[in-house]
Amino acid sequence: MAVVKGLLWFVFLYVVPMFIVSSLSEFAPEIFSSYGNLLLVFVAIILFFVVASELTSGTIFQHAFNIGKALILMIFIVVALEGGIVALDFQGFHLVADLRIYLAMLLTIDLVGLAKSVLQAINFLSEKTESQLSTLSPQ
Amino acid sequence: MRQAIRALGWAIYILWLVIIVFTVTAVYSAFQLGLDFDDLQTSTSEGTVTLLLPFSLENNGFYDIYDLNITTILKESNGALVSNSSTVVPLISSGNKINATHNISISLENMTSAGLSRLLFYDTDLDMEMSFALRYAGVIPLKIGRNFTMPWGAPLGNLTIGDVAVNPYNSTHVRAILPFSFENHSFFSLNGAVRTEIINTLDQQVGGTTTLINVPPQSGYSTQFMVLVSVSGSGFKEARLYFDTSVFSYGPVVMPIG
Q: Which of A93, A97, A116 sits opposite B9 (nearest CB)?
């Protein structure tokens, strides 16, 4: 199951986007070709955590990996978007884009994902405790 | 707690959907912008030369463009500021096309008083920084710029006064003939007058004349100043030239004469 999920995510996150990036690279190679490496790192992070989360499914480690994924993705997004101010040079032009609002939107999604993972971990622990209590209770 | 987790899951899906839709439509819209420039025109008035750059921007994307600001900074190669001009278009709505003109104003009056008077006499290359700043879709500020080199033609290039010839006139005056020439390398016409003063070795003004000039762009001008000079017993030291044209006033330009 972990391998199947990993493969599906790989196709969805790497093969399709790389096809788009490669197509766009023909128009402006200076801009888009540098994003191939970032995409590779992004996919590596996602695949690692998807596979790890699947392998540890049903344990607290699954939620720990989900929390780790949210935190690492937040750092990755900040680094990839250069803190929100992206500067590019192509064909003699210098382009500066202020993507801080975009960055804030992405970080918000990750924060919501982090909150969800924390709640899932708490829920998992509470359910586990409840089931242990029910087995200990007198018949 | 399960409901809260489910709600957060839905929130994540919806936020991702918003971001993906926004990203795709924003990139698509960026490719739907059409920017065209017309031919550069020039005009002169009251000591200012203006380069007029008509342009049109067609926004066929999904999002409005706010605060389009075109800025051109002209500098000499040593960094001295020659001109700083901006054109602002507050809003270009989706589906609309605007036609505007970016004016690059070069004040020759300021230039002569700001230590840039050598630009009147010597051709050079000016560094031009042109930038476009805008707020795309109301939330993404963008700035795109490029550096160019712009050739500057001196309006008084190769300014020369040749050897002075002196002819007798009467008992108190002689007639001095000064060959005078320059080349107008600029893109504007020089209309006005040149006032000439002859100074002797005792630093006294011994004669003068005023000549009207009308020199089209990219053309030379050559004449001979006929100046009646009072006989003072001393030789000529220099000629002082004062230019008073429709574009600038400048002087004195001191030229030694023998």
A: A116
With beta carbons under 8 A apart, name residues in chain A contacting B12: 109, 112-113, 116
Chain B residue closest to A106 (CA)?
B19
Contact (CB<8Å) A105/B19: yes
User: CATH number of the domain at B33-151, out of 3.10.450.50, 2.60.40.10, 3.40.50.10470, 3.40.190.10?
Assistant: 2.60.40.10
Tell me the three state secondary structure of residue B27.
Answer: helix
**Rounded Cα distance, B128 and A76, in Å:** 38
Edge-first strand listing for the sheet containing B81-92: A85-90, A93-98, B140-152, B124-136, B65-75, B81-92
Residue A120 contacts B, CB cutoff 8 Å: yes
Q: What is the pTM of this model?
A: 0.76
Of the pLDDT bands very low, low, confident and very high (cuts 50, 70, 90), residue B48 is confident
Q: What is the ipTM of this complex?
A: 0.77
